[in-house]
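Example 3.
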Amino acid sequence: MDAFNNQAKHNTLIHAEPNNLIHGGKFHGEKSPALEISGLSTEYPTPRGTVHAVRDVDVVLGKGDILAIVGESGCGKSACLLSIMRLVPRPGRIVKGSVKFEGKELLALSEAEMRDLRGKDMAMVFQDPMTTLNPAYRVGEQISESLRVHGLLSGFPRRLLREEREKERERVIGLLKQVGIPSPEHRHLEYPHQFSGGMQQRILIAIALACRPKVILADEPTTALDVTVQAQVLDLMREINEELGTAIIFVTHDLGVAAEFCHKAAVMYAGQIVESGEIEDVLSSPLHPYTRGLLRSIPQIGQRCELVPIDGEVPDLTDLAPGCSFAPRCKEADLRCLHTDPHLVQLDNGRKVRCHLYT
Amino acid sequence: MTRTQVQVTERIIAAIPIMLGVVIFAFLFMRMIPGDPVDIMMGEAGGVTLEEMDFLRAQFDLDKPLLVQLTRYLGKLARGDMGYSIQRARPVKEVILEAVPATIELALFSLLLALVVGIPLGIASARYQNSVIDRFGMTASFLGISMPAFWLGIIGIIVFSLRLGWFPTSGRIAYGMEPATVTGLLTLDALITGDTQALRESLRHLALPAITLGAGVAAVVARVTRSSMLEALKTDYVLFAKAKGVPELIIVVRHALRNALIPTVTVVGLQMGTLLGGNMIVETIFGWPGLGRIVVDAIFSRDYPLVQAAVMVYALTFVVINLVTDILYTYLNPKMTL
């Protein structure tokens, strides 16, 4: 079910047909959500004050969906993913909200239960594969470790047996083959530094895939790669999504990548989701002034038009002024925007926007 | 031969000129100290005529030009003859071979103590940064670094040997209790021959000197391990391991520690040289019949052949330790080659 419903009831709706409320998008309603996040807020206490990195984030990820979380650096995208996995580094902490994985509340699980779930039901792919793989271990070992901690391969001492070792080898080679690493039967014995960046990212994806997770959280997985390799990695992730039905949250600051690869988009600004909906809708008719600004600031092929940067800077998340976080940079802001925080408004087509223009 | 074997062989060959240089320097530097062995021996004995002293000098080749002495010495060395100790009137080789196992045994036990205490303390301090454990560990290691060995050793003797009577004040083992010699390391020999009484006795003798010598090293190891563990625990691969669902203990030991140990190995390598070559003070305080004490005696009595041989042993120790450290690096970080 749509996590926004409660909030939507309190908001004035425009262009909204009643039956579009719940079954808005083409993926909504067809599939029950894999991941349902509501009101998620994460804070980092610092000597300068509390940083509100994630504020009241509501996201629904349907089974088999690919959702892009788009936004500038420092807008809380990574913190949001880490919060979902409950891996926010100390002293940061999740202060409120709910994260439901297939209906199960993750924030209420014990650390041990959560550990069981990490890597097995939900896996993460990080931005920089060169620092994410442990330099001291062969890539094969790093893949099989995932399987071993989740009981899909025998641990010590059984793993010393010949047939167990053979089984482990086959699983690892199979996964490497699946992500398109050439001659996996030799390369699984190599160390991370012996691979190129694109190949390393494939290995990260192989590790993420190892336990057949239902959700993959990808934190800018293509940012560190050059464009041709980026396309290969995206193709691979798309294949995984189509063949295995794995739902993916894809964090990126690259709208082009998001447009090409994702079904839905959520635009994040200053720790909040400011707009969400089907990717085509969000990109073709952006509602929030911030999204419009973002789109105007990227070049279009074939059109010689001037790029318009968004004036001003991302607000400091330590001391947040009341009112809309984007108001100081917004050309359409009025008095109301400076004083009251807008709510996320449910519109038709499953679109949502956090802006007073639509209330 | 594998690549590593080739590289190790290369390193060993490269060590030969180093060793030669060390021998020549030791030879020349010893002779720059005023007074030769005969002066010192006879100065103590008194009532010796100049003719008698010249006769003695001729005995030890001390009347020849330096270059002749050096060539003769190197020639003998090449045949494995380290010469004759002037002061002890015994072949140098014998004296050294007797002393080296004692020094090695003390160094190994100190190192073991330093690692067993230092590494877990460093890990715990990093994992529970700013906790009580961290504060205790870092205060203790601060004390360990600041306390000079001669002071710690003397306090140890006063408290644990004289007042409490737990440990003997000096020596390696009580007279007449030595186990049959196999390796020269008393504890190891006692284990091999199954002589439990000798084992207990030698451990009792080892305790105080090993703690005195190991305390400083343990402190350094704890500090270095802590700081590199703090780094390692913040890395992406540790976060990724958490995201894989790996249990905390395995993350700390397998993922973080393995990478954090590189600086620790560097420091231990350097400290090991000090443990083997720089423990003159501890050996002297505890009357430990090792190389350190012999060298101090030999320098004071200008026992040229003995000092030269000892310096050679020290240099060899450093060369070997460096090689072992480098091999360990390549194990810990596959990116490195020898």
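Chain B touches chain A at residues 234-237, 239-247, 250, 255, 258-259, 332-335 (CB under 8 Å). Chain B has two domains: 14-78, 104-301+318-332.
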